[in-house]
Amino acid sequence: MLKDVEKLAAVAAQEERTIIGLMSGTSLDGLDIALCKVSGSGRDTKVSLEAFATAPYHDDYRNNIGAVFSKHNVDLELVCLLNPYVAKIQAKLINEQLRAWDIHRQDIDLIASHGQTIYHAPKSQHKRDAFSNATLQLGDGDHMALETGVITISDFRQKHIAAGGEGAPLAAYGDYLIFSTPAENRILLNIGGIANITFLPKNLEARDVFSTDIGPGNTIMDAYIREHFPRKLYDMDAALASAGNVDEALLKQLKSAEFFTVEFPKTTGPELFNLAYLKCAQQNTETKTLSHEGIMATLNRFSAETIAEAIAACPASLTNATIFASGGGFHNPKLMATIQSLLPQTRIRSTADLFIDPDAKEAVLFAILANECVAGQEANIGNPDAGMPSISMGKISLCH
Fold this sequence. Notes:
By secondary structure, the chain is α/β, with parallel strands linked by helices. It contains 14 helices and 13 strands. It folds into two domains: 2-167 and 393-397, Nucleotidyltransferase, domain 5; 171-354, Nucleotidyltransferase, domain 5, CATH 3.30.420.
């Protein structure tokens, strides 16, 4: 134990740390692996993305996670079994990727593991008075540390909830540390399964940072494709959505969820925005016979409108800002074009213009959180009034 603690202290004292950031989202397409060089901490953080890859999951992994993902009633034994299973599968993918990059594990200081979310339950959604916000990610850090031989920081979201947050969006912390600039106000828009934004004021004041989930990104679109087109994971190049017409009645019904009336900041997930939500909306609007193209066109517009409307509804100071987009939704040409058309006065750019691959951004930001956990000094990097308690996050798993 003493040897491991001494190693951890040495890593914390280094001028620069090599950190692997991981992200495994709701799409279950694969594990994002970002190899980062990180120096400093807090507002002095500097990060360089050295390499990035998405290691695809096998169907067995998708099926096993799918059996418990965002479901109220599940096999509890399977949930128990999946906690080490996820860690071991992801560790195997990390080890394989390091070999592909010809990098030895001894050259890696830390792994920052997001884990695999299987359920997200903010109080605004579960509405049970006796319980607070909650979220659950599988993928035990101890198993990952032993399988890779690298100190692993994991389970970031629990500390956020313990400090009064909802466990999301955690990207706001990394956004603030590495993307803030006195040159302009910025909005960091991430379109994963769920879309979220972070507002970064050019005054660089942490208490003015604003972050929130804003509704569905790809989650319902991807789920629909997987259900009706088993060989596909998503609507590539928005081919189906572009071939269909928006059904206005269905669109209006999709936008009627109570979630959209809740004030910012707020969080949500596939527990709300899923195929059951779509099917209920179709039943209420008698659109159950709508074509695949019509469904996808409407779902695409649903995500685009709720994203644009949320940005437009933010405080006036956010309107004079440049948007930098990331996430899988960034590659959906119809979605991005519609968002831009709905926000004609706002320029939308890629986080690639900030030297971070839009596909790698979330994995990189978890590397930043791990860096803060190990090397961060006491500093005000949060905004409690906007759901960002000023804390460091992550649990440390030693590798011996």
